[in-house]
Design a protein that fits this description.
single chain, mainly alpha
Amino acid sequence: MRSALAAAAAMIAVLLTGGMAGIFFAFSNSVMPGLNAIKAEQAVAAMQSMNQKILNPLFMLHFMGAPLVAALAGGALLLAGQRSAAVLFFVAAGLYVLGAFLPTVIVNVPMNNALDGAGVPAGAAEAARLWADYAPRWTAWNTLRAVASSLSLLVMAIGLYVWGTNT
């Protein structure tokens, strides 16, 4: 029973974290470069819309659930006698919290709120200034989130490997 709980939690943690790593990667790798290639007025409007639409239950489940379920998997692995694998899942949860969750709450969301609060720019020059102030910094922090969540996913994979070699 303990192993079944650990396996279920570990698989769900991998899925949730992988989903978040993919979202962050896609934004840094294609969405932001794509927005940078169009007029600033269009980029601002598109980003404002995406920032509003991404606040949905499925996204929140992945974003909030990833570290919680990874920690749950760590606890279940401890109960199943898999200390080394458990530690790796706890480390993965910590990586996600420090490198993806906290930057989101401290940097990216406030930037998104400020962009949304700016409303519709009063012309091309205002939009260009707004976008130039927003996009490079937001993308840099988002790339950190992509790297951190990807590393978290990798650590979970190592945890699964360690667990598999110890059974």
